[in-house]
Design goal:
Blueprint (H helix, E strand, L loop, with lengths): L5 E6 H12 L6 E8 L5 E7 L6 E2 L4 E2 L2 H15 L2 E10 L8 H14 L3 E11 L2 E10 L7 E8 L4 H9 L13 E2 L26 H18 L2 E5 L6 E7 L3 E6 L10 E6 L4 E5 L11 H13 L5 E5 L2
Parallel strand pairs: 1-3, 1-9, 6-7, 8-10
Antiparallel strand pairs: 2-3, 2-6, 4-5, 7-8, 8-9, 11-12, 12-13, 13-14, 14-15, 15-16
Length: 317
């Protein structure tokens, strides 16, 4: 289940550029995203800057050539008024399609250092020799640890900025070695409406039953009333559904519904600011699966969220 909470507008040429860069090498590679924010607050990617000659990548990390990025970024700003929206890097053949904990730490640090209100992070994974996936995530000030999974509005053809800038740029420009690359399983939406991909739940999972999905909506409604924020997401590997919620008083919360739910209790995690990660709460409260599942789950989550306990096991998210 991909719950699209935001949108990214991007030209077809720039999506293809990212896919080509990803397939160029067997180690991590990265790029930087330039454009502007629309009136509605959506990032519009007009130009992607590839890796510089002094960029460094390993199997698990990428570091851009900062002088190269500054040189091209200055030209994009002075010639076309574009701003730096964020960056892209590949996780290559790893199954992790979303930001790692280290990715989020880096983004939060950058937002705090440069006083950024928003930051766009995109991640690519190689599917086979000629295909990649690309996913986008938006971070917002005040909710840096609860990033949004974005849907793409793909604008057809080549970006007009690329056509002009590539012909006039005075700096070295990265040219992908890969001529043909496909982007598969792209989460797309439209300018008018948001599009949700069909959920793929594990076998025997409670949300396979329609009435239980109504229960989930009821739980989310009450959590939103209590804390003022809630969103549903799905683990990329396990397909288990989890909620991100919380308030200023209790901090960010993560609630995961395991395979055995509702026979067993949901798993509640609290955010720890010192480690910038979610930690499992020890000594779970008594769980009651009889009666109203909405009320029982809501009351259990609130009780766990306000419980005075010590952190036990970190959950990287």
């Amino acid at each position: 289940m991909v719950n699209i909470q935001s949108k990214v507008l991007v030209y077809e040429s720039e999506i293809n550029f990212l896919a080509q860069c990803t397939l160029d090498t067997s180690i991590e590679i990265g790029s930087d995203l330039f454009g502007y924010f629309s009136y509605s607050g959506f990032p519009v990617i007009m130009y992607v800057v590839g890796p510089g000659e002094l960029a460094k990548g390993t199997e698990t990390t990428f570091h851009q050539d900062e002088e190269y990025l500054k040189s091209i970024g200055d030209e994009l700003r002075t010639k076309h008024g574009l701003q730096h929206l964020g960056n892209f890097h590949s996780h290559h053949t790893f199954t992790l399609k979303k930001p790692s904990q280290q990715d989020s730490n880096t983004v939060v640090k950058a937002m705090n250092t440069y006083q950024l209100d928003r930051f766009l992070l995109m991640i690519g994974n190689i599917v086979n020799n000629d295909s990649t996936t690309i996913n986008a995530y938006q971070y917002n000030r005040g909710k840096e640890n609860l990033y949004d999974h974005s849907g793409f509005v793909v604008l057809p053809g080549e970006s007009p900025i690329r056509t002009v800038f590539d012909a006039t740029c005075t700096s070295y420009l990265y040219k992908p070695k890969t001529e043909h690359a496909r982007v598969v399983n792209l989460v797309e939406t439209t300018l008018e409406n948001q599009v949700y991909s069909k959920p793929n739940y594990p076998e025997n999972y409670w949300l396979r039953i329609k009435k239980n999905r109504e229960v989930l909506n009821g739980i989310m409604y009450k959590l939103n009333q209590e804390f003022g924020y809630v969103t549903a997401k799905q683990e990329a590997i396990t397909d288990l559904v989890y909620l991100l919620s919380g308030s200023k008083e209790v901090g960010p919360l993560k609630v995961t519904f395991p395979i055995a739910f509702p026979t067993c209790a949901p798993l509640v995690y609290r955010f720890d600011v010192d480690t910038n990660g979610f930690w499992g709460l020890i000594e779970p409260s008594e769980w009651n699966s009889e009666g109203s599942l909405v009320l029982n789950t809501f009351n259990y989550i609130v009780a766990m969220a306000t419980k005075e306990v010590e952190p036990k096991e970190e959950c990287y998210e």
